[in-house]
From TrEMBL:
Pfam families in alphabetical order: ABC_tran, DrrA1-3_C
Keywords: Antibiotic resistance, ATP-binding, Nucleotide-binding, Transport
InterPro entries: AAA+_ATPase (IPR003593), ABC_transporter-like_ATP-bd (IPR003439), ABC_transporter-like_CS (IPR017871), ABC_transporter_ATP-binding (IPR050763), DrrA1/2-like_C (IPR025302), P-loop_NTPase (IPR027417)
Name of the protein in its database record: ATP-binding cassette domain-containing protein
SMART domains cross-referenced by the UniProt entry: AAA (SM00382)
Subcellular locations according to the entry: Cell membrane
Organism (species): Frondihabitans peucedani
């Protein structure tokens, strides 16, 4: 893969995917640039795995362009691609070190190099003493660590990770994030599906939020925050907070209110308007909506609909 080119590493344009008569992806477009870590976010069933499968040629897209390095993906060029699929699974009846060495050889490493790399990795993820154990004797989380090792062997230039930390305890989740961050620092481009906003905030340069196969927001985290009005004002006051086209009052208590800024307007203007309308302002703090809050806004109504159906 040649990172000097201007073409993005991943380009998805007007991608549509139908299963039978159901359209699950509607004209989706986004790109991933060389060296960035890109968060692919969305509620369950929003189409993340389908998009990855179409990108890797596992599914035939109904319409659109899905390119890696300027061309549709083909496995022959795949040696520098690391893919951790949503469905996990390796050959379970072999020992951990044999399985890892085997995959290393498939990725073009010599046997000794593959073995040495694998032993160092197992040490890193506290599995050194399991090297000779059959894979199916490991816990689910331990097996996942082995699978991540297999995925990042041979330093792929593009890493596609479908929920890499799913099912991990907090300590191991942090360890996995450290490992992903190292890959990023070594220059890898990373496409990562995750439901953990903490991971997004720590690792991702840009994100896309998918809902029912459509993009709801796309950009850097500050850009996404801006796309959602972005700012909340916490106001301590006395008097009466007037209605305004600039904000929506989301909390109104005696002497305390929260206002969501709905228009691109300077907060100083809102403060001035409040004072001019006779509000005595005792405290005025602004903060950006967190990704968690944005997520709840985008997907909250889905759960309401599900609850409604259940009722
Ligand atoms: N092979 C298939 N045939 C029919 N429908 C499918 C197929 N694969 C996925 N779907 C449907 O496409 C939609 C998107 O599924 P997908 O697995 O891409 O979601 P996801 O965003 O990865 O979800 P999750 O977070 O739960 O993994 C779902 O409604 C799913 O039922």
């Amino acid at each position: 893969m040649d990172h000097r080119q201007t073409e993005p590493i991943v380009r998805i344009q007007d991608f549509r995917m139908d299963f039978g008569r159901t359209t699950v992806i509607h004209d989706l477009s986004f790109e991933i640039r060389a060296g960035e870590t890109f968060g692919f976010l969305g509620s369950n069933g929003s189409g993340k795995t389908t998009t990855i499968r179409a990108l890797l040629g596992i599914y035939e897209p109904t319409a659109g362009i899905l390119h890696i390095d300027g061309r549709p993906f083909s496995p022959e060029r795949g040696s520098r691609l690391g893919y951790l699929p949503e469905e996990r699974g390796l050959y379970k009846k072999e020992s951990v070190i044999d399985v890892m060495t085997y995959f290393g050889r498939l990725k073009g490493l010599g046997k000794q190099d593959a073995r040495a790399w694998s032993l160092a990795y197992l040490e890193r993820v506290s599995l050194a003493e399991k090297a000779a154990v059959r894979l199916d004797k490991l816990s689910g989380g331990q097996q996942q660590k082995v699978q991540l090792g297999v995925t990042i062997m041979n330093q792929p230039e593009l890493l596609i990770l479908d929920e890499p930390t799913k099912g991990f305890d907090p300590v191991n989740r942090r360890l996995l994030m450290d490992i992903i961050e190292e890959q990023k620092r070594a220059g890898a481009t990373v496409l990562m599906v995750t439901h953990q906003m903490e991971e997004v905030e720590r690792l991702c340069d840009r994100v896309i939020l998918l809902k029912n196969g459509r993009s709801e927001a796309y950009g850097t985290i500050p850009e996404v925050q801006d796309q959602f009005g972005g700012t909340t004002i916490r106001l301590r006051y006395s008097g009466e907070v007037p209605d305004s086209p600039h904000y929506r009052v989301t909390t109104r208590e005696r002497n305390y209110a929260e206002l969501d800024v709905v228009e691109a307007v300077d907060e100083a203007v809102i403060l001035r308007d409040l004072v001019e309308s006779g509000v005595q302002v005792r405290g005025f703090e602004t903060s950006k909506l967190s990704l968690d809050e944005i997520f709840l806004r985008v997907y909250g109504d889905e759960n309401a609909a599900i609850e409604g159906e259940a009722a």
